[in-house]
Structure formats: C-alpha cells, structure tokens
C-alpha cells in the first residue's frame, strides 16, 4: 500500500483534508434536540435586536415550555412537529413591571403561535411567520430550589387559569420559609406569622397561624387576608420549577413565589 508521500500532491491533499473533516475539531456534531434547557440570547423584530437578560430562559419538555420572560414566569403548551417547528400556546404568567420591559413585552409577543426551528451546534433559532427571531443557546437546566430552607418571596396570586402580580404597594412584603423539622414562619404582607407545616408528597398543610396583631390597611392588608385564608384553608399542592414555587388550593386559588437566599 502506498503512503501519502508516494501519492500525487493533489490527491494527497484531498485525502488529508477528508481525514481532518472526519476527526478532531473538524468532526461534525449532531444537531441539538429542541427539547431541553435554553438561554434566550436575543430577539430580532422590527429591524431591531434586543439582547436578553441573564434570567430569560426556556425549557422545552414533551408538551410544554417553562422558564422566564426575563422577569415574569413563562408557562406554555408546546406542540412539536418533529424538530422543524413548534406551536406555542401561552398559559398562566405573572404580570409584574420589569426593569427591561421592552425585552419582556417583545418576548411575550414573539413566543406564541407556530415557530419554525433552525438548529445549529448548541443553539436554536425560532422564527415567526413575519420573520422575527428568537435566538436560544444551550443552557444546563437550573436545579430546583428545595421547598424547605428556601426563603420564598410571594410575587403573584393565582385564581384558576389567571395569575396576577401582587399589588405594587405590597411587593416584597410577603415571604415565608419552611424548615426541615416542620415549622413555617415569615410575613403575610404586614404581620409576622408562624405555624406548623406538614409536607406529604406534593402537598403541604399549614397548621393554625400565630401572628402579630398590627392593623393592616390598603394593598398590604388585602394581601395579608388573602394569604391567611390560603394558608388556613387546608392542604395545598406545591410545585417547584427552578427558583419558582406555586402553591395551589383545590379550588384553584393560590400563590407564586420566587426563591431567595437559602436559610442556614
């Protein structure tokens, strides 16, 4: 068998390039499966490019998309056509005012309906019917915060399929923490409280609440009365996705909260 040095120069060059293309850095990598966790790098719409904040992300599963528009939570039904397109039907989300509201509003408007998918190594580009795009880059899924030892800051209220942010005047005032030994404590929006908390699988039940007795008026008082009724109403179903917690009563009423600094 002749070695490359015995071959004509042109043929040796072709064979060498072919070998490089099949090994090492030149090897072609398989295109990514759209189902996975993605950071939202940028949006292009109306001739402009908007860069995503660090919190903007999407995680596609078999029939849904979860994540963050950058500030408010993202939840949608996602129906895939193989790896070429996905149809997104947005669901419940909070409605907080956000620091980068322009990006948030644009993402909400683009991430719905039928989106075609272009795949590249470690990235996806979702394209709307009018040619606007959402650029995604691969991101390892964020680990779920633990139910216990996390400080949960209440940022929204849920009523069936409707979710709304807590009133601006009460934002940041309601929070609670559960401990591994079954205690709950925090603020209802005005008064501090404590209670026993029993976790059984996907449900948590708060015992009778002990609270301070300050008079609470306005939005903070309304939020306090809502949370008191929720915590006192029996078992609540809890779900955690990343740093977001949802507590829901059997009648569909509930709350959303974001995980803050873990409690030592």
Question: How many separate helices?
Answer: 3
CATH class of the largest domain: Mainly Beta
Number of domains: 2
Number of strands: 19
CATH topology of the largest domain: Lipocalin
Strand content: 35-45%
Average pLDDT rating: 86
Give the distance, in angstroms, between the N- and C-terminal Cα atoms. Answer: 70 Å
Task: List strands and helices in order, with pairings.
Layout (H helix, E strand, L loop, with lengths): L8 H13 L15 E9 L2 E4 L5 E4 L3 E5 L4 E9 L3 E6 L10 H10 L2 E8 L2 E5 L5 E6 L11 E10 L2 E4 L8 E5 L4 E6 L3 E9 L2 E4 L3 E2 L6 H14 L4 E6 L2 E5 L4 E10 L2
Antiparallel strand pairs: 1-2, 1-3, 1-9, 3-4, 4-5, 5-6, 6-7, 7-8, 8-9, 10-11, 10-12, 10-19, 12-13, 13-14, 14-15, 14-16, 15-17, 17-18, 18-19
Describe this structure in words.
The protein is mainly β. The protein folds into two domains: 37-138, Lipocalin (Beta Barrel), CATH 2.40.128.270; 150-262, Lipocalin, CATH 2.40.128.270. Helix content is 14%, strand content 44%. It contains three helices and 19 strands. An eight-stranded antiparallel β-barrel has the order 1-3-4-5-6-7-8-9. Strands 10-12-13-14-15-17-18-19 form an eight-stranded antiparallel β-barrel. A hairpin with a 5-residue loop joins strand 8 and strand 9. The radius of gyration is 25 Å and the shape is elongated. It starts with 8 loop residues before the first helix and ends with a strand. 28% of the residues are buried. The model is unreliable at 1-5 and 11-27 (pLDDT under 50).
Supply the key terms.
264 residues, mainly beta, Lipocalin, 2 domains, eight-stranded antiparallel β-barrel, 3 helices, 14% helix, 44% strand, disordered N terminus
């Amino acid at each position: 068998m002749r070695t490359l040095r015995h071959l004509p120069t042109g043929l040796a060059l072709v064979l060498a390039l072919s070998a490089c293309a099949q090994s090492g850095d030149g090897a072609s990598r398989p295109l990514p499966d759209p189902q996975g966790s993605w950071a939202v790098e940028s949006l292009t719409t109306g001739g402009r490019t908007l860069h995503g904040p660090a919190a903007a992300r999407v995680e596609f599963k078999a029939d849904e998309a979860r994540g963050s528009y950058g500030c408010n939570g993202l939840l949608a039904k996602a129906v895939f056509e193989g790896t070429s397109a996905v149809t997104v039907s947005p669901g419940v989300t909070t409605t907080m005012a956000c620091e980068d509201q322009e990006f948030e509003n644009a993402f909400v408007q683009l991430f719905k309906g039928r989106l075609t998918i272009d795949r590249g190594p470690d990235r996806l580009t979702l394209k709307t019917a009018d040619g606007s795009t959402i650029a995604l880059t691969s991101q390892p899924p964020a680990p779920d915060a633990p139910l216990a030892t996390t400080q949960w800051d209440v940022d929204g209220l849920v009523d069936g399929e409707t979710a709304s942010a807590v009133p601006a005047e009460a934002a940041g005032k309601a929070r609670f923490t559960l401990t591994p030994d079954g205690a709950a404590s925090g603020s209802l929006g005005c008064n501090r409280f404590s209670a026993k908390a029993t976790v059984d699988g996907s449900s948590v039940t708060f015992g009778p609440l002990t609270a301070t007795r300050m008079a609470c008026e306005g939005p903070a008082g309304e939020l306090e009365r809502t949370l008191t009724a929720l915590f006192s109403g029996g078992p609540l179903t809890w779900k955690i996705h990343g740093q977001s917690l949802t507590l829901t009563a059997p009648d569909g009423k509930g709350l959303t909260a974001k995980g803050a600094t873990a409690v030592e």
